[in-house]
Specification:
The chain is of the alpha+beta class and 490 residues long. Helix content is 29%, strand content 20%. A hairpin with an 8-residue loop joins strand 10 (309-311) and strand 11 (320-322).
Length: 490
């Protein structure tokens, strides 16, 4: 609800009536939320946009600052972080490439500013779309992403809401892909800290797009609305937002040395005051964040939780994950000899790496360690490459790999890179990791077929480690090359 300004003085009776109406509205709001299954329509007295904020230590999970963190708020353009989460997921599934075209419909072109002003019938590449959302916060492009993925923006909004619930964002509801005003588009500061962590955990390669300061688009140079990039030490993203109902919002991620936080500010009175508040929160919170190995599990979707269990061992240099032993879980192992990488044939489409289920990943370090994704050469302007990290295009195509199997007896300690829904995808990531990591030269790649609850996954693993420390050292080398992994007992 928009704040009521300039109230006129009246009789004492009128004041009492107004107070009573406010109490009744406040009492009715929770009931209405329950009736709508947790969704809250902040209209007619149920919503106000004062300050809300939360800061979370990524490594420990500890709350460093919280004010109104569970109060319902409109996310405005921070919505686009979830829109990009959904798009990144499609990229990892191989449905799109960075140079794939997205079609612009009349509906997308008609969206209110901020926008690129694309014409109906035109196209924009996926990579251009990502940068347009990160920098310009383009509503026409956000709508187009939703329409291309789901067929319509309302269906896409339903997908976004389901994704939010699966991540644990229990009070979030989406009605559109852009964050344009809608009474049902609601969230909380707490929910947004979950999203800020999830998009980094799940997509370390694509997360680096949020560091984009500007990009050239068809003769224009478009700058980023996030004024803290480059201005506050440690800040590496992620998204601003504003509508009249929401106030000035900001989602921020920051890392300095071995400390890492995510922070949310909602309901700022102006862009400048919001930025000052966030800058102060970052500067005061980062020194208090935990500097040791990450103790918290990555943010995962609800269907993936509970397997494997996470055990934080005191004195360990890195977190260790031990697979859960459940009665209905059946594992079968196989292994593959991986040939040396072959030169990629121009035009040959490399199999996309499958998204690694969150519960099967270890934290992949900072986004600065992850290789920046390739666009297939269609867009030349991109962020600086990470020194010493090979491009994904250098990995061998599937046809160049040997599919020959040989028995592997797992050593006491192994490394797991993830669990895929297809064995070829598991082999693909094993080949990619081995070709780019010297520490795995003598390790034996193999897959583990796991059937659980009617779902079959293939764990991608390396054997060859008799000691925990050796496995963790090799995993650390993998992380420097942008891979997620964890050491586990075989």
């Amino acid at each position: 609800m928009r704040g009521v300004e300039g109230r006129t003085t009246g009789s004492r009776a009128a004041a009492v009536l107004l107070l009573a109406a406010g109490v009744l509205t406040a009492a009715a709001a929770p009931a209405e939320a329950r009736k709508r299954g947790g969704h809250h329509r902040p209209a007619g007295g149920g919503y106000s946009p004062p300050y809300a904020a939360m800061v979370v230590d990524v490594k420990s999970g500890r709350t460093l600052h919280a004010v109104n963190e569970d109060a319902l708020r409109h996310p405005a353009s921070i919505t686009k972080v979830m829109t990009l989460y959904m798009l990144f997921e499609q990229l990892e599934k191989g449905r799109y490439e960075l140079d794939s075209d997205l079609n612009i419909t009349a509906n997308a072109a008609a969206q209110a500013p901020s926008k690129l002003g694309l014409r109906p019938g035109s196209t924009i590449t996926v990579e251009e779309a990502i940068k347009a959302l990160v920098t310009k916060s383009a509503n026409d492009v956000a709508c187009a992403i939703g329409e291309n993925i789901a067929g319509s923006e309302p269906r896409f909004a339903e997908m976004m809401t389901r994704k939010a619930k699966s991540l644990g964002m229990s009070r979030t509801n989406y009605s559109n892909a852009s964050g344009l005003p809608d009474p049902d588009q609601i969230t909380t500061a707490r929910d947004l800290t979950i999203l800020a962590r999830a998009i980094q955990d799940r997509f370390p390669r694509y997360y680096r797009y949020f560091q984009t300061r500007s990009f050239a688009f068809r003769g224009r140079v478009i700058g980023n609305h996030n004024r803290l990039l480059g201005a506050v030490e440690g800040v590496d993203g992620i998204k601003t937002g504003y509508t009249r109902d929401s106030g000035f919002n900001l989602m921020t991620a920051a890392k300095l040395g071995d400390r890492q936080i995510v922070a949310i500010v909602l309901g700022g009175k102006s862009g400048a005051s919001r930025d000052r508040i966030m800058a102060d929160l970052v500067r005061s919170s980062l020194p208090r964040a935990y500097a040791g190995a990450r103790q918290t599990a990555p943010v995962t979707e609800v269907a993936e939780r509970g397997r494997p269990a996470v055990i934080a061992e005191a004195g360990s240099r890195t977190r260790t994950e031990i697979a859960s032993a459940e009665d209905d879980e059946v594992e079968t192992t196989s292994s593959t000899s991986i040939s040396p990488p072959a030169t990629t044939t121009p035009g040959m489409r490399r199999p996309a790496l499958q998204a690694i289920p969150g519960a099967a990943q270890a934290y992949a370090g900072s986004a600065a360690q992850a290789p920046f994704p390739s666009s297939g050469g269609k867009t030349t302007a991109r962020l600086p490459a990470v020194e010493g990290v090979a491009s994904r295009a250098e990995a061998p195509p599937k046809d160049a790999r040997s599919d020959a199997f040989r028995p592997v007896t797992p050593t006491p300690w192994v490394i797991q890179l993830g669990a895929m829904d297809d064995e070829d995808k598991a082999k693909s990531i094993l080949s990619d990791a081995r070709s780019r990591t010297v520490a795995l030269a003598k390790a034996a790649p193999y897959t583990v077929r796991v059937t659980h609850g009617g779902t079959t996954l293939y764990r991608a693993r390396f054997s060859g480690f008799t000691e925990q420390g050796a496995a963790q050292d090799a995993c650390a080398a993998l992380k420097k090359n942008g891979f997620t992994c964890f050491a586990t007992r075989s």
